[in-house]
Every structure is written in structure tokens, then in C-alpha cells.
């Protein structure tokens, strides 16, 4: 199985499958993608929709959210009698059920007081912060739906992931790791970004950049052309008032600019510039340092990767006229070949931090079906002189490094591992090794986390193998996608170690990995293709 097929971002086969799956609704029957059910004329998620929780029309009560098809109290509330109440601010249940505040007093932080402290607003006899209270978000009594949080007075999800094969978006609440209802959106979303309460989703099947409110993921608010029929968007970088979209098939960096809000609550984007990075370069992601973009160039098999194996530097000092400055080659590194044979530092991701620009290297052998022939690695580029240093992540814990993100003063690397696929069952992984996370500090790996410990043989033997994908970071929590079985794992970084919150261990701290993207029985594989933290 070739490496391009392992990476769902480059899998044209999956693009066609997703497009075929999302064919619309014939007049006589509503067709829904995996994870959604027909309720009337709509496709809804009975596992997470508070208006249809467990069954069509079964609505949850006030202050309740739907999880696994069962209504329960929203985060921040507790059951008191037959109601969900906020013990932190409810004057009739202040700090404990039935603990009513004396007449004339208010409830703040679970304590009865004479008045509200500085920074808090009085809503009835409750003291709340309207900018972050999900029960009074932006105004008294404005309750955020399902598992949304309050961001600067607006309700939205903290984390959003895209399901490539199902064409869905799924919101997640940070901290509780609760999922909101899955929402149908597009037909081939490959990459996500977020800006000003809007989720941007680049759709490869239709070559458009779609926008949805971060609080209403199934509603399209604006759509902009990506300018190419066969677009394969690999990354979106938001740098207000500009949005940059990277296309790995057309080898372009497209620049869009906000020029007034569009009708419906969109950002009002318009294409203002573009630069071509060169034929057969296959650019992957954008890391910004100052006025320079660092863009890993993977290259293409058809050109023997001669235009890849490097990092392009693009000046955006004039954002509407980006300029390719040069490329930093990744040749000459000690890639620690397992057999002394061929291996290439094909780059997939990059992160810019104070110490330099770090690039995730797959370290594969194109001459041997793109199998790893060396450990997963990082390359640190010195922006001052373009010098490159290789960092060995350890073959036992990491093969095929695929994404890298900063967590404080440390780096987290996602390793896709070495996977063996069952081509007879829709390219579902039947064996994977060295897939997971590696924590790097001061250019040295200090901790690792395996996504599928003790899981062998695939779902027929009682476990779904994971293949690590892209990362999102919220505080010290790392959300990593699974591009094989459509899940999201949640791991915290604490004191130089990984602590599992939602994963495959028994028991995980908060339960199993999130089943964000259900496997469609007609397609078998399920890709949680990208994930983004909403600021």
C-alpha cells in the first residue's frame, strides 16, 4: 500500500467515494450518511441532537444535552430534584441543592453575597460573567445549545473535526470532551480553520472554501471558489484580514481577503492573489514566522519526488503578492536508514516556534512501496541561515511523522506509523505499528503515547486500529484524529508526560476515544481528516 493512499489528504480514491456517497435526497426517500438517521425530511444525529435524542422528536429538557442518545445535564449544571441547575449561580441552589440565598442576596461562585463582584453581571439574583457563561452567554438567560461553550459572549464549539468520508462536521467541548450532534456539511471537506466565530472548510470535491458558524455547523453562511476544478486543499492559514489556502495538486498558495461581512454572517472573502510553488511540488501545510511562510514540499511519485524533499520559503511582506523566495533542501540529513538503503525526508507538516521551524519527516522508501525505512523524524530549520538539523523520534514509538504542534515550550508530533491495509475491505488497516504521539523538549523526545496499545487484528478481533492524523491543541490538551476508524483521541501534556483522557486504555480517564466519524458499512474506512481549535 503506497504512502499517498495512507494519507487521506492525498487519496483521490476517497474523494470519489465521498462524492458518490453524498448524492442528495431523491423525492421519494431521504438518504443519510453514516451516523445520521431520517427524521421526517431531515437527517439528524440521534446520538447527539437534543431535539431528537435517541428517537425522532424526543427532545431534551431545558439545560440538558444529548449524549449517546440519552438526555443529561449540560456541563456546569447538576441535578437538583428533577431539574438541572447551576450551583455556582442559582440563588435557590447556591453551592448545593436546596441552599437558597437569603432575600436580597445574590449567588456568585456558589456563595451567597450582598452584591456581585467586579467583572460579574447581575442576572436576576445570579452573578455571572456574560463573556464566558454558557447559561448566560452575551445576555442574561441566553443558554448555549447542546455542548457549546461561550466564547466572548458567543456560543460555539471549542473544537471541530471534519469527517471526510461522511461529509460531516462534529463539534467537541473542551475539558468535558463531549461531542455535539454530527452535522452534514459538504461532500469532501479536507481541511479546517477558524476565524471570528466562523469555521472555514475547504471542500476538495467541489473546489470551494465553505463557511459555517462555529455554533451552527450544518448551516452554510458563505462559499468562495478555490479557482481550480481539481483542487486538493491541504491547509488553511488565517492571518486577518487574510486567509491563505494551500493546494497540493495545483501547487498554489491562494490569498483571500476579508472585504466586509457577507450576507448570512460570513466573512466576506475575495481572492486577491496567488503564487505557484512549482510543478510536482505538492505543498502540504503553512507555518508562519514573521513575514515568511515555511511550506513543506512533499513532491510527487510521478516525478520521483525531485521537486519535493524540501521546504519552500514564501515572503508575505506584501500579503496580496506572495513571493517564492527560495527552498530549503532536506537532503544530506542522517535519516538512520534501517537497512542502509534508500530513505527520503519527505515532509508533511511544520510548526514555527521561537527556536526555529520544525518540520515533520515521513522518512519513507519510495523504492519499497513507501514503507518507512527509518524512524519518524523532525527537521529543525534555523531561519537565520537555513541550516537544517535532524531529530530522531525513535523507531519504536514513531514511524512516518505526520503532524507537529506546539504545546507550551514543547512540541507534540503525530506519527502515522507503518500500516498494512486490507484492500479487499475498503483499505481498512489490519495492522499498524509505531503510531501515536511523541513529546519533544529541547530537541529531544521525552515521552510517547501509543494510539492502539495491545490492539491487533482489527475490528473482527474486538478492536479498531488507529492511524494517527492531524492535531489540535487547547491549553495542555491534544486532540488527535484517527484516519482509519474516524475517532478523536484526547491526551494531556503534564510535567513532560502524556496523560490519556479519551483513548484505548482500559479504563481511560474519561472513557474511550470519541467516535466522531462513524464507519459507513459501504466504505469500511472512516477518516477524521482534520481538526481545529476554535479561538
TrEMBL record:
Domain of life: Bacteria
Signal sequence segment: 1-20
InterPro entries: Stig-like
Record flagged with keyword Signal: yes
Protein name stated in the entry: 4Fe-4S ferredoxin
Keyword line: Signal
Keyword Signal in annotation: yes
Biological source species: Corallococcus aberystwythensis
